[in-house]
Amino acid sequence: MPECGLLVSAPGKVILHGEHAVVHGKAALAVALGLRTFLRLRPGGGERLRIHLPGVGVRREWDVAELRALRGRLTGGANACLVLRAVRHCTGCPERSPSPPVCLCFRDVPSVDITVWSELPTGAGLGSSAAYAVCLAAALLHACGAISCPLKDGEATARWTEEEMTLINSWAFQGERVIHGNPSGVDNAVGTWGGALRYQSGKITSLKRVPMLRILLTNTKVPRSTKVLVAGVKEKILKFPAIMNPVLDSIDAISQECQSVLEAMPTNPSPEYYPVLEELFDINQHHLNVIGVGHPSLDRLCRVTASHGLHSKLTGAGGGGCGITLLPPDATPLAVEAAKRDLCACGYECWETDIGAPGVTLHSSSSLNAQVLHALSES
């Protein structure tokens, strides 16, 4: 392990198309964000496993001997739900809080110090918990000798093999289960493989050779309940099936059309694709309003960006939350800065970033910027 420790990152995610329709058997496209979670793992002392999350003011530590004893009690093929409850209880981690359960599943429980810092806002539907779980799984798997260290001398970054990433993804999913109970597995898959994924009826498929696209990601900061929004869509479908089912079919067709465009772009990077992507944004946003998951804050976001010639849609559950704005190659820096300024004037939080970013990555310290290195150096 390098003197600075093991440095790992994983991306967040946004839903490009297919929100809510995916609950009813339609396709959804999830893409990796340029905003990432970063983790540093170093050998620890005093037979303790320590985790520090400076961005959210969390410090936790566990006695390694107690975790090893817990691991011994959980290796007898117990019911998965009982195992998860036992992990939460014995590590003192309530629902939806950071926890290190994956370390209990390896050959040994390491004595390490872990620091995690993220560019992702929490609770915004951007896969922050999955990015955390992916980083944690990769780092602990490496610490326990279950996966290799692919970073060679002189290299800035490296990725693991497909087989090793499958292992990372499987343990990250277990971490997501501890946090969320019954996750789809999409967020941790995006965090592991990056790029873009198609999700339909429980099946996750990686899209091949997708381009990196520039976007504005905007958080309206309007809280919403995914459960309430999903229930509202279901109620509307039951009330007006002949009207609503064709809308879901259209959203599905948008996802499929977008997938075709994204897969065609790397071999033929024509600017003519961008008006198609923009129109798909517009159509899908109207559909999402029709099924009842829009919000005045999102309507305002779309109006503000449209005044600068840009196209936006909500991403995720809707009802507030986040929206994404496509930035085509001909979008001028002046127009982008003006849009960001106007969005911030609405009280929104805005990031200029990419989608289609790489998945879980091993870093040399030279590949990380000063802000990340400073955050990870906090002890």
Automatic annotation (TrEMBL):
Keyword Secreted: no
Pathway(s) where this gene product acts: Isoprenoid biosynthesis; isopentenyl diphosphate biosynthesis via mevalonate pathway; isopentenyl diphosphate from (R)-mevalonate: step 1/3
Domain GHMP kinase N-terminal: start-end pairs: 110-191
Main location class: cytoplasm
Keywords: ATP-binding, Cholesterol biosynthesis, Cholesterol metabolism, Cytoplasm, Kinase, Lipid biosynthesis, Lipid metabolism, Magnesium, Metal-binding, Nucleotide-binding, Steroid biosynthesis, Steroid metabolism, Sterol biosynthesis, Sterol metabolism, Transferase
GO biological process, one term: cholesterol biosynthetic process
GO CC terms in record: cytosol
Record's subcellular location: Cytoplasm
MF terms (GO), sorted A to Z: ATP binding; metal ion binding; mevalonate kinase activity
Domain named GHMP kinase C-terminal: residues: 280-339
PANTHER family the record matches: MEVALONATE KINASE
Protein name in UniProt: Mevalonate kinase
UniProt lineage: Eukaryota, Metazoa, Chordata, Craniata, Vertebrata
